[in-house]
Specification:
The chain is α/β, with parallel strands linked by helices. 44% of the residues lie in helices and 20% in strands. It is built from 12 helices and 10 strands. The radius of gyration is 19 Å and the shape is globular. It starts with 17 loop residues before the first helix and ends in a 7-residue tail after the last helix. Bound molecules: ligand C2E and calcium ion (CA) (2 copies). One calcium ion (CA) binds next to loops.
Length: 275
C-alpha cells in the first residue's frame, strides 16, 4: 500500500493544473475509497466502517482528502464525487454481502456542498434503492461546524434520510455542552469526538471530565459517542471507564483498502450471528 502524502508538506492542490487533472482522475476512475473500521469499545468487535476518499494519482501516489476535498468543493466536482462515494460504498457493501460476509453499516462523509443541494436526499435514496442491502446500512457524517451553523435549515432533509433508516453522525465534535441543545432538535444518532480532544484525555483531567459529561448528556438523549483518533492503550482504557461507546484510530486500525477490509471481516464472521 502506498504511503499517503503529508498534506502539510504538499501544495499540489495549489498547482494551476490541479483541477483539470482532478477532472481527468474522476473520468479515469482513479478515485478510491479506503475504509477505517469503527470498534465497539465494550466488545472489541467491528461495528461500522468509515469510507475515506483517496486519489491514486499515477504521478504523485496516494493523495489525501485534505487536499482533494477543498479542490473538489472549489470546482463543480464535489456533487459528482460525493454521490459517487455514497454509491460506491453501498456497492462495496453489497459485494461483501454477496461474498458471504456480514458487512456493518458504512459511513460516508458528506460535504456541506452536497447537503445544501436540493437533490441530496433523492440521489441518496436512489443509491439506497439500487445498491442497498436489506437494512439501509448507510450512515452520513456531517461536520459539527456545518450543523451548528446551518443545521436547522437542513432539518427536513436529515429527517427524510432518518426515515429511510440512514444514521446521521456529527463529525469533529468538541466537548462543549452548549451545542447539545441544537442537536436535540435533529435526528442525530452519533457524536464523533474529534481527535485533538481525545489526544488530551489521559494527560488532562479537565478534558477527561468534559468527555465524561458529554457521554452522559449524549446517552440521556439516546446518542452513541465515538472517540476519533485513538492511538494508545491508555486512551482506550480511559474511554472504556468513561463509558464511551465506540472508537476509531490507528491503535485498532488505519484506513484500509477494500480487499484488506474483507480479510478483517472474514475473521469476524464466526463470531457473528447469521441471519
Ligand atoms: P475525518 O472524517 O475526521 O476522518 C478522520 C481522519 O483522521 C482520516 O484522515 C483518518 O485517516 C485520520 N485518522 C484516523 N485515525 C487516526 C489516528 O489514530 N491518528 C491520526 N493521526 N489520524 C487518524 P483522512 O482519510 O486523511 O481524511 C481527512 C478528512 O477528509 C476527513 O476527516 C473528512 O473530513 C474528509 N474526507 C475524507 N473522505 C471524504 C469524502 O469522501 N467526502 C468528504 N466530503 N470528505 C471526506
Ligand atoms: Ca468523518
Ligand atoms: Ca472526524
Amino acid at each position: 500500500m502506498g504511503d499517503i502524502r503529508d498534506a502539510g508538506l504538499c501544495r499540489l492542490a495549489e498547482a494551476p493544473s490541479f483541477e483539470s487533472r482532478l477532472r481527468e482522475a474522476v473520468e479515469a476512475e482513479q478515485l478510491v475509497l479506503y475504509y477505517q473500521p469503527k470498534f465497539d469499545l465494550a466488545s472489541g468487535s467491528i461495528c461500522g466502517l468509515e469510507a475515506l476518499l483517496r486519489w491514486e494519482d499515477p504521478l504523485h501516489g496516494l493523495v489525501a482528502p485534505d487536499e482533494l476535498i477543498p479542490a473538489l468543493e472549489h470546482s463543480d466536482l464535489m456533487l459528482e464525487v460525493g454521490s459517487w462515494a455514497i454509491r460506491h460504498a453501498l456497492s462495496q457493501r453489497l459485494a461483501w454481502h454477496i461474498s458471504g460476509l456480514r458487512p456493518p453499516s458504512i459511513a460516508v462523509n458528506v460535504s456541506p456542498v452536497q447537503l445544501r443541494h436540493p437533490d441530496f436526499v433523492s440521489t441518496t435514496c436512489e443509491s439506497l434503492e439500487t445498491v442497498g442491502v436489506g437494512t439501509p446500512g448507510l450512515e452520513v457524517e456531517l461536520a459539527e461546524s456545518v450543523i451548528r451553523e446551518e443545521g436547522n435549515g437542513h432539518c427536513g432533509k436529515l429527517r427524510a434520510l432518518g426515515d429511510r433508516g440512514v444514521r446521521i453522525a456529527i463529525d469533529d465534535c468538541g466537548t462543549d455542552a452548549a451545542h447539545f441543545e441544537q442537536l436535540s432538535h435533529l435526528p442525530v444518532c452519533e457524536l464523533k469526538i474529534d481527535r485533538p480532544h481525545i489526544a488530551r484525555i489521559t494527560a488532562d483531567p479537565a478534558q477527561a471530565a468534559a468527555l465524561r459529561a458529554t457521554v452522559e448528556l449524549a446517552h440521556a438523549r439516546k446518542l452513541t459517542v465515538l472517540a476519533e483518533g485513538v492511538e494508545t492503550v491508555a486512551q482506550r482504557q480511559l474511554l472504556r471507564a468513561l463509558k464511551c461507546d465506540r472508537m476509531q484510530g490507528y491503535l485498532a486500525s488505519r484506513p484500509l483498502p477494500a480487499p484488506e477490509v474483507a480479510l478483517l471481516l472474514r475473521r469476524q464472521v464466526p463470531n457473528q450471528v447469521s441471519h
